[in-house]
Amino acid sequence: MSATILTIALGYAQVALALAGCLVGTRILRGPRAQDRVLALDALYVSIMLLFLVTGMQLGTAFFFEAATVVAIMGFVTSVALAKFLFRGEVIE
Amino acid sequence: MSPLEAVPLWIAIPVAILVVLGSTLTLIGALGFARLASFYDRLHAPTLATSWGTGGIIIASALMFSVLEGRAVIHEFVIGLCIVVTTPVTLMMLARAALHRDRAEGSDALPPGLLARPEKNAPGE
Amino acid sequence: MTRLIPHPVLSLSMVMLWLMLTRFSLGYLILGTALSLVAGRAYSALHPAKPRVRRWRAIPRLAATLFRDIVQSNITVARLLLIEGRGTRRSAFIQVPLTITDENALAVLAIILTATPGTAWLEYVVETGTLTLHIFDAAQEAHYREMIGQIYEPMLMEIFE
């Protein structure tokens, strides 16, 4: 019984998060400006991290947790570096 | 399927609710992200994913693994802490960068009153 | 004491973080403590301004208020996003004069306002003490002004100043 509930909920969450990643991905492609793309990349990192956590729950292993941590930290470093780059104003669009 | 069988029902229900809540909020945020028209509007969309979207999934994960392993598994909250502290930094920097760039171009995304800094010659810029 | 452990709160929270990431055992406790002491010394080599917290007791109250606000604004913004295109929502830039001047209080306020869906921190000008915010729903301008001026600013002032 509990396995059925969890399978449905986690399956739904995986689909929803993957869809969220795709929607955010369209914003990376569409832009229109560099800051839109950077913001979208940051949101994409969060969606992927949550997808890792949910997948780890579904498989019952804690191994995905490390991957999620790395993705979360990488996302932060990337976005801050890109934002700093935008601030300097020397970006060719 | 074997690890999920071991979860008792009274834990499975809140875990399922939290996971569905978290992923739905993230999806709504992403939907808004794709549909909203201006950059400054879109700044608000990711905060749905990083507040209760992340919160719900993290709490669910911590609950489930604590029950499965028979000890308090709280390392998920490190991710939560990381997200809570880092997202505002990212969003603020991006907002300021966007403001800076829009001002440099005199973009019409800004109201006229904002095209110049309220007081010039700020130190530390 | 201050030479060996320049930042006791930072070091202690690093030990806690280390133990959360691994599992509790004596070896990890010793390793984590050693690492956090080194990290504390390294951090003090950067000469950061030491945050001074005057009243620790007000922090749980701030956290509780923030939790409630985040839940509320999550619901509000999710609803607004779902009816996007059909409703008459407008976003707005607003300027709020702030009375707090302490750097740490401003940093905490920035985190609060950005983490809460519905408000985004754009800019703070030191000379005039004005904060420029972008709010998702212009109809709630009065609510946000009141929230900052009447709730968060007095609390942060109590904690830091």
Number of helices in the DSSP assignment of chain B: 5
Oligomer state equals heterotrimer
Computed Rg of chain C: 20 Å
The number of distinct helices of chain C, counting runs of at least 4 residues, comes to: 5
- Gyration radius of chain B, to the nearest Å? 21 Å
Stretches of chain C where pLDDT is under 50 for at least 5 consecutive residues are none
Number of domains of chain C: 2
Average predicted local confidence, pLDDT of chain B: 80
Structural class of chain C: mainly alpha
Strand arrangement across the biggest beta sheet of chain C? 1-3-2
Shape category of chain B: elongated
Unreliably modeled segments of chain B: 120-125
Could you give the topology of this structure?
The complex is a heterotrimer of chains A (93), B (125) and C (161).
Chain A (H helix, E strand, L loop, with lengths): L1 H29 L3 H26 L3 H26 L5
Chain B lengths: L1 H4 L3 H27 L3 H4 L2 H25 L6 H30 L20
Chain C lengths: L7 H14 L4 H19 L13 H25 L9 E6 L5 H13 L3 E7 L4 E6 L5 H20 L1
Antiparallel strand pairs in C: 1-3, 2-3
Helix pairs in contact in C: 1-2, 4-5
Descriptive report:
The complex is a heterotrimer of chains A (93), B (125) and C (161). With 93 residues, chain A is mostly helical. In chain A, 87% of the residues lie in helices and 0% in strands. Chain A has helices spanning 2-30, 34-59, 63-88. The mean pLDDT of chain A is 85. Chain B has one domain (2-107). Chain B has helices at 2-5, 9-35, 39-42, 45-69, 76-105. Chain C has 2 domains: 8-44, no CATH class; 58-160, no CATH class. In chain C, 57% of the residues lie in helices and 12% in strands. Chain C has a 3-stranded antiparallel beta sheet, covered by helices on one side. In chain C, helix 1 runs antiparallel to helix 2 (26-44) and helix 4 (103-115) packs antiparallel against helix 5 (141-160). The model of chain C has no long low-confidence stretch (mean pLDDT 82). The interface between B and C is large, with 42 and 36 residues.
